[in-house]
Amino acid sequence: MRTKREDAIKYPPWDRAVQTIRNKQKGFGFRDVIDNLERCRPGAAFLVGLRAAGESPNRWRAVTKNPVTIAGRDIYWATRGRGATTLYPIYDWNFHDVWKYIHNSGLRYSRIYDYQFKKGYPFSQMRVSSLIHERSFKSIVDLPEFEPKTYARLLKRIKGVSLVQEAGKSAKLFACRKLPKNFTSWITYRDFLMKTHLDTKALSIMAARFAKHLTNEYVARQQCRQLILGDYENCLPVDNHADPRDEMIAYYEAVL
């Protein structure tokens, strides 16, 4: 969508003949780029602007559970792997710490945050990232309002963007919170989506995963979401358990 900068990495700096792929069934992906880049820079230190505050406890634990000893000092906000060290200097910052630092230091930042704030976005949803992955497609809904030129370029680049812009926040489509009226259950809707899915390779990956899941409405609704989003990479994992509502109803029936 944009011309690459002069200092941008335009070609892989590693040997493609020996590059690693996490999951050969899915093929080479973005996370594989990071792995190979780190591996071909032994002894390097990579700075990552990751925050654990406000996120899941697993993120905090992943950053701090394996401290790295540097100059005789244990650094708990660092990890080491494949000969390189990754440092997370703002891992314990919260949302307000980041914006205070930006303000005090006079740093440049994306003005999309200003638009989101003026439109009343909650802090938890004020994010700027890729527009087309499984967790951020709803941002396309407001893109014509925030950045009309970017939206015009995106329309030319990727098919289906106009549909996402119109229905990105619909409870029936991508979010799969409301069952379409012509289906009697999430299970029948899932089966319909599997029969009509166009990407046979992605479908085979998802079908193999679904075969290990429970068969109930709670799980099927999540499977529908993965099918509609084409989430063969399992970026939005299915919670493979009994319906929590059924468990709650059984509990109150027993105690009341």
Features of this protein?
256 residues; mainly alpha; three-stranded mixed beta sheet; two-stranded antiparallel sheet; 11 helices; 5 strands; globular
Q: What would you call the quaternary organization?
A: single chain
Sequence stretches where pLDDT stays below 50 over 5 or more residues: none
Number of strands: 5
Strand content range: 5-15%
Query: Main β-sheet, in a few words?
Result: 3 strands, mixed
Number of helices: 11
How many domains is the backbone divided into? 3
Radius of gyration: 22 Å
For the termini, the CA-CA separation is 60 Å
Structural class: mainly alpha
What is the string of helix and strand elements? HEHEEEEHHHHHHHHH
Overall mean confidence score, pLDDT: 89
The 3D shape can be described as globular
Strand order of the largest sheet: 1-5-4
Helical proportion, percent range = 40-55%
